[in-house]
Amino acid sequence: MCLAIPGKVESISGADPLTRMGRVNFGGISKDVSLACVPEVQVGDYVIVHVGFALSKVDEHEAQQVFAYLRRMDELAELREDRS
Which backbone phi and psi does 60 adopt, to 5 degrees? Predict the structure, then answer.
């Protein structure tokens, strides 16, 4: 299944807004994602990510609710399989 899921920005690299990248934690699984679409995002913010791109900022409470639903459906396992 291909979902846009929330994650917490742990670190940011790059000064150019078009190539800016972030290390994003998805409930214990961290991935590098593009932050080109969300130039206002800072470390500690939550973002919605789809196919490697952060699309928008999201509230922490909403992100935690989505994590809980994904755990119940065992959908976070897909992220563990792709260790990039």
Answer: -60, -40
The structural domains of the chain, ordered by start, are 5-81 (2.30.30.140)
Residue 8 CB: number of other CB atoms within 10 A? 21
Q: Containing H/E element for 5?
A: strand 5-13
Q: Using one digit for the tens of pLDDT, what is the confidence trace for 17-69?
A: 899 999 999 878 899 999 999 999 999 999 999 999 999 999 999 888 887 87
72-78 LR contacts (CB < 8 Å, sep 24+): 75/1, 75/3, 76/26, 76/27, 76/28, 76/29, 78/1
Question: Predicted confidence band at 1 (pLDDT cuts at 50, 70, 90)?
Answer: very low
